[in-house]
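Interim report to the steering committee. The following record documents the input for DUF4166 domain-containing protein (178 residues).
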Amino acid sequence: MYERAMGDEFHRLDAAVQRFHRLAGKHELEGRVETIAPRSVIGKLLALCLGTPRRSQQGPIRFELDASPAAETWVRHFPGKVMASNFRPQGREIIESLGAARLAFELHERDGALVMRLLRMHFIGIPCPRWLMPRIVAEERGRHDRLDFAVSASVRLVGKVADYRGHLVLPSATAVAR
């Protein structure tokens, strides 16, 4: 799905990022994560609506992936919090359903990293005006058998809504061969 959405840019991604996005079927990955809590009351409320972590913590993460060419489900087991989202392709975009939000992303390669850029968002089915759209920084880098990730989302006048970073250990290369 990501390879189709990115075209030739996909082949310039770090090898571990390519490997992660070529996983098919069901996989459980483990790693470490650090979450940073939203500070404002509205930020915490939005985090609740999205299902993103609301407490600052460090610890293990378990990641469940169910991937097919038509859709992916990601279930992230943070310390004390589970966050699930569904992804599907729409042309050259990837649409993520996360809690009360539906987000449309454009994917790019930058220095081997996968960078996701938010194009549009619907919240509880209502289109979000551009001036109110969150600023999202979502990047993945790879090295050896490890996928490093960093995700941060903030809203003007509200502050952080989500902020987490860490890594996942990838399955062996033979487990991802198609």
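The mean pLDDT is 93. The committee is asked to note this result when reviewing the revised timeline.
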